[in-house]
Amino acid sequence: MSDEKAEIKMLTLIEANAALPKVKIILKSLRDLRDRVLRIQAQIEIEEMTGLGADGRLTPKTQNAITLQMDEFQTHTAHFENLLEDLFQLGAHLKDLNRGLIDFYSLRNGEVIFLCWIEDESEIQHWHTIEGGFQNRRSLD
To answer: Measuring CA to CA, which residue among 82, 93, 84, 119 is closest to residue 10?
Structure first.
């Protein structure tokens, strides 16, 4: 990982809110990809259970099907990882994909904090300490 990627991006509230439209699009794409990957994984498992020949080995047809599914699986997981990197480049840190929970590093009164956003909120309205987590978030007011 290059130094550029490892650097923590600190955002103001305005900058973090401005990133939300892109974050929402990425979250949807991540969920879609996750669902595709899980379907492919299930298909591979079914092929492995049902594609045995009389000798107890996978048939050539099954092996070919699994190879194609594995290629698709790898393509989708690579895309998923790229989208996670896109989030990181925006300054967004995914905490919970199902809930759409995102944190952004920021400063509050000289202390490093997380601006905390969940997908059903129209804008960022909460923050918490780095150690605090979602359950300890507080209103920005």
So the answer is: 93
Residue 2 domain-assigned (yes or no) = no
Q: What does the block give as tokens for 110?
A: 């000289």
CB hemisphere CA count around 23 (13 angstroms):
29
Cβ–Cβ under 8 Å, residues 123 and 26: no
Distance CA 126, CA 120 (A): 13
Predicted confidence (pLDDT) at residue 51 exceeds the cutoff of 70: yes
Check: CB of residue 135 under 8 Å from CB of residue 99: no
In the chain, the number of structural domains is 1
Euclidean distance between the first and the last CA atom of the chain, given in angstroms as a whole number: 37
Quick one: average pLDDT of 83-98? 96
**Burial label, 2 (beta-carbon count in 10 A; 0-12, 13-18, 19+):** exposed
Domain holding 64, by residue range, is: 8-139
Mean pLDDT in the chain? 93
Collect all residues with Cβ–Cβ distance below 8 Å to 2 and sequence separation of at least 6.
Answer: none
User: What length does the chain have?
Assistant: 141
